[in-house]
Amino acid sequence: MLSVVYMSGTLAQYQTVADSVRKVWEYTSSGFKYTKENNSIYQQSPMGYMAAGFMGDSVVGLYFGKKKGSAFNYGREFHLLNQEGLLLERYRIFSNLYNFCIDSENNLIYGIAYNPDPKILIYDMNIVERKQ
C-alpha cells in the first residue's frame, strides 16, 4: 500500500504481512519547513503529493509542488518511482488534477480534474512529456 503526506511532500510504500505493516521505503520531495509565530505554525515548504498508485513495478505520485496560498490546490506533475523509492522520471501535465487511477495493462492514467469544469482526462504514459 502507499501513503502520501501532502504537507511534507512525502510518499511511502508499506507492505502488509499477516497482522503487521512494514515500511518498505519513503521518498520526500521537499520536507516540512515552517515558521513559528506566537502560537501558530506556518508552512514554508511546497505542498506535496496528492495521490499515488501502482503502475506495474513502478509507483506513480500526483505531485502539486507549489507553495501554500497558490491559486489552485491541484496536481501538475506525475512522479514515477521504482520499487526502492528512487525518483526515475517527472512528467509535466497541462491540467489541474485532483486525483487519478491507473490502467496498468494499457499504461494509461485516468485523471480527475475540477477546474474550470469537472472532467476525466486520459494520459498515455508512453507519450506524456517528461519534465526537463
Could you walk me through the main structural features you see in this protein, from its secondary elements to its overall organization?
The chain is mainly beta. The protein contains no helices and 11 strands. The strands form 3 sheets. It has a 6-stranded antiparallel beta sheet with strand order 6-7-8-9-10-11, with no helix packed on it. The model has no long low-confidence stretch (mean pLDDT 82).
Write the layout of secondary structure elements.
Layout: E1 2-5, E2 10-17, E3 20-28, E4 34-37, E5 40-43, E6 49-55, E7 58-63, E8 75-81, E9 87-103, E10 108-113, E11 119-124
Antiparallel strand pairs: 1-2, 2-3, 4-5, 6-7, 7-8, 8-9, 9-10, 10-11
Characterize this entry briefly:
This protein has 132 residues and is mainly β. Helices cover 0% and strands 59% of the residues. It has strands at residues 2-5, 10-17, 20-28, 34-37, 40-43, 49-55, 58-63, 75-81, 87-103, 108-113, 119-124.
Q: Let me know the number of strands.
A: 11
| Rg | 16 Å
| Count of alpha/pi helices | 0
Task: Tell me the span between the first and last alpha carbons.
Answer: 29 Å
What is the helical fraction, as a range of percent? under 10%
Give the biggest sheet. Answer: 6 strands, antiparallel
Poorly predicted residue ranges: none
Helix/strand class = mainly beta
Strand fraction band?
over 45%
Report mean pLDDT, rounded to a whole number. 82
How is the largest sheet built, in terms of strand order? 6-7-8-9-10-11
**Helix-strand topology string:** EEEEEEEEEEE
What characteristic shape results from the CA principal axes? globular
